[in-house]
Amino acid sequence: MKEIIGGVTAVQGFTAAGIAAGLKKNGRNDMALVFSDVDAVAAGVFTTNAVKAAPVQRDIEIVKTRKTVRGVVLNAGNANACTGEEGKKADKAMAAAAAEALGVETDDILTCSTGVIGQLLPVGKVTAGAKLLAESLSSEGGDKAAQAIMTTDTYSKQCAVEVKIGGKTVTIGAMTKGSGMIHPNMATMLCVTASDVAMSKELLQEAVRDVVNVSFNMISVDRDTSTNDSYMILANGKAGNPEITEKNADYEAFKEALCYVAVKLAKLMAADGEGATKLLEVTVKNAASEESAKVLSKAVITSNLVKAAVFGSDANWGRIICALGYSGIEFNPEAVDLWVESESGKLKLAENGLATDYSEEFATKILSDKEVTVTADMKMGKYNATAWGCDLTYDYVKINGDYRS
């Protein structure tokens, strides 16, 4: 497997576009389209929030009932959530406009929205935008599409890899957005992944579910789970590999590559959390079970006190062990070892639940770097998990205090 330049349009058979439809106040691009020139098997996972946006409700049904689709049309600046029947009509109208311009069926086009909740989606703008997107599709359009779906993101997020499967080169390319309202069980994220792999729908869906649990479900910025989370993959089979219909070596190779892409994008999202200055990675080692390792690592990255300490470069390790303690997982606090690490070095803060004779000056230097790793050895078993978050800064409150204005 090797990483290559690009995102969704690095994959053969896929084109994309990004345009300004007038949904954002600043005039930036705010609609995107990803399209396969042949039928593509579709799989996806969506928000666990009981309040689901109109596009999420529609996509869940399409992914469940249809084997293939042709593309995804996305808008930023308006979440089309809590908009009732009018929201559903607007969502379908956006899909229908794109489908008509592309010469496909309405249900061949999935939809995604992100932005302010509770505002009606302007039908005229999104239908006109969908038609313009169809006319603007290009094999070079991946960058514009990735930029168009941004809301409070400070940079676009893409990744692509190549991997040998069945003697053929299979490509996976993806774009995602997400900066705030990010919490385990997905996030305010839209992720569209394209691949030219040939794989059954059932196995593709299973791969997506497995991958999301070690990538996008392991990040948190602010403990808020969105109404619009959508992670979907379209696989058009153009690589020409023998179709993967069982869990063999080809399946594992594909899932490993898909996981690489998802984890990289998840980390980019965590690092770009609203107002964030640092990426926080938390690894829990030697937990009693895989699930307990995940719960423990998430407890640390979601702790506001830990996040604030990382922002202040304060080695207040008691906050870390406190977060582990209220996770709901039983462990022996007098057995836990804690480390912090960055490009400046590695330092053991606690051993067997007690402070070591560490240098506060060196700890501050480590915690001042842009990427900080915390490791907790629970000494309970053999299971490990890693979660990603960011520091909590003054700017997070500023951004969300005037988000609509």
From TrEMBL:
Signal peptide: none
Domain of life where this protein originates: Bacteria
Catalytic activity reported: N(2)-acetyl-L-ornithine + L-glutamate = N-acetyl-L-glutamate + L-ornithine; L-glutamate + acetyl-CoA = N-acetyl-L-glutamate + CoA + H(+)
Site description Involved in the stabilization of negative charge on the oxyanion by the formation of the oxyanion hole, residues in chain: 114-115
InterPro entries xref list: Arg_biosynth_ArgJ, ArgJ-like_dom_sf, ArgJ_beta_C
Residues that hold substrate according to the record: 151, 177, 188, 274, 400, 405
Pathway(s) annotated for this protein in UniProt: Amino-acid biosynthesis; L-arginine biosynthesis; N(2)-acetyl-L-ornithine from L-glutamate: step 1/4; Amino-acid biosynthesis; L-arginine biosynthesis; L-ornithine and N-acetyl-L-glutamate from L-glutamate and N(2)-acetyl-L-ornithine (cyclic): step 1/1
One Pfam family it belongs to: ArgJ
Function: Catalyzes two activities which are involved in the cyclic version of arginine biosynthesis: the synthesis of N-acetylglutamate from glutamate and acetyl-CoA as the acetyl donor, and of ornithine by transacetylation between N(2)-acetylornithine and glutamate.
Family annotation (NCBIfam families): ArgJ, PRK05388.1
UniProt cross-references to HAMAP family, sorted A to Z: ArgJ (MF_01106)
Entries under PANTHER family matching the protein: ARGININE BIOSYNTHESIS BIFUNCTIONAL PROTEIN ARGJ (PTHR23100), ARGININE BIOSYNTHESIS BIFUNCTIONAL PROTEIN ARGJ, MITOCHONDRIAL (PTHR23100:SF0)
Name of the molecule in the record: Arginine biosynthesis bifunctional protein ArgJ
Organism of derivation: [Clostridium] polysaccharolyticum
Organism classification: Bacteria, Bacillati, Bacillota, Clostridia, Lachnospirales
